[in-house]
Amino acid sequence: MSCVIAGGGPAGAMLALLLARSGVEVTLLEKHGDFLRDFRGDTIHPSTLQVLDELGLAGEFLRLPHRKAYDLYLATDRGDVRMATLRRLRGRYRYVAFVPQWDFLNLITSAAARYPGFRLLMNAEACGLIREGGAVRGLRYRDATGEHEIRAALTVAADGRHSVLRERAGLVPQDLGAPMDVVWFRLPREPRDRDDTFLRLSPGHMMVAINRESYWQLAYLVLKGGYDEMTRQGIDALRGPVAGLLPWLGDRIGQLGSYDDVSVLTVMINRLRRWHRPGLLFIGDAAHAMSPVFGVGINLAVQDAVATANLLAGPLRSGAPIPEAALHRVQRRRMPPARVTQAAQRVVQNLVISRALTRRLDPSGLPPDLTRIPLLNRVAPRFIGHGVRPEHVTVKEL
Ligand SMILES: Cc1cc2nc3c(=O)[nH]c(=O)nc-3n(C[C@H](O)[C@H](O)[C@H](O)COP(=O)(O)OP(=O)(O)OC[C@H]3O[C@@H](n4cnc5c(N)ncnc54)[C@H](O)[C@@H]3O)c2cc1C
Fold it and tell me: Which fold has domain 3-64+98-175+268-343?
C-alpha cells in the first residue's frame, strides 16, 4: 500500500480522492459507519468550489441541495448589518455554498470510488502506528472483527482535532486558546421565517442560524465552562436567550425538551510545530485545529489535501519511501495559511466574541453596510472566499 489515511473528514477524503485519481493506491479509514454526523460545518467556500471545478466535480456538487450566500449578514438588535459581500470576488464562484457536510463527503468518496486504487474502510478506527527502523510504516486499526494492520509508505493523520495518531506519535500541539464553546441544536423551520443563514449578536449573546430548509441548525455560543452552569439552571437557561435573540422561534422553542436535545462542541485553536515524522504526515485539524470563526476550517483542510497531493502524488506513485524532507515541504507550504488564518480567528475571538459574550460589545451602533468601507470591502471577501494561498490541483489524473 502506498498511502493510508486515518480520518474521512474533508482533509482525508479529499486527499484520498486526489491520490486515487492520480494513480496512487490509497486506503481511507473512517471510524464512524457513515458521514451522517452533525456538527461538522456546512460551508464550502469559493476556494473549495474552485478545487471541485478543477476536478470536474463542480456540476455534481451544485446539483446537491444547497444554498448560496453572496452576502454575509449580522443581525443586531437594531436590524441587519451587511458584513461582507463576495459578489465582486474574482473567479467563477462568488458565494459560499451551504451544504450539509455529509453530502459533501459522500460526493468526494463516491468520486474516489471510481478509481481502482481507492479503498474506503468505514467503522475502522485507527488506534496505533506501526514503527520500524525509526520510521512509521503504517497503522493499526480496530473494527467489529478485531484489530488489524495496514502497512504503507506514507501514513497520513487526518483524524481531526482530537487526533489519536498525534497522541500515539507523542506530539502535542501548541494551544492558542478559544474563549467559547458552541451549544448545537435544531428547531423546525417555518416557511414564513427568514431564509438566509446569518449571525445574531446582542450584548451578552451570540448565535448562528443555519437554514437547512425544513429546520434551523442553531449554534449558541457560551463562554468556556459556561455550559455546565447553564445545565445546572435547567433548559430555560438556553430557551430564554434563544427566544430573546430570535423571537420568531418563540412559538417552537418548547420543542427543545431538555439538554438531551443539544450537543456541546468544544472550540479550540491549536497547531503542531512539526507536522511530520518519518513516514507520517498530519494535515487538517490534526495539524492545526481551526475555530468556527469565518467558517473556513473545512476549506483549509481541503487546501492542505490539495497541496499534499500536488507535492507527494509523484513520489508515492513511484513506490519509493517518501523522504521526510518531502513531508516538510507540505508543512512549509501550508503552515503560513494556517498561521495567518488562526491569527485572524483569534483577533475575532478576542475583540468580538469574548467582548460580546461579556456584554462589552454592542453591535447595534454599526452602520448597516460595512461593505462601504473600502479597505474592508477589498480584504474581507478575498480572505473569507479564497483564503491565504489558495491551492490549485496540479497533479494529473491517471
Ligand atoms: C463548533 C464548530 C463549528 C465549525 N463550523 C465550521 C464551518 O461552518 N465551516 C468550516 O469550514 N469549518 C468549521 N469548523 C471547523 C471545521 O470543522 C474543521 O476545521 C474541519 O472539519 C477540519 O477537517 P478535518 O478533515 O481536518 O477534520 P474533521 O472534520 O474533524 O474530520 C476528521 C475525521 O476523522 C475521523 N476520525 C477521528 N478519529 C479517527 C480515528 N482514530 N480513526 C479513523 N477516523 C477517525 C472523524 O470521525 C472525522 O470524520 C467548525 C469547528 C467547530 C468546533
Answer: FAD/NAD(P)-binding domain (3.50.50)
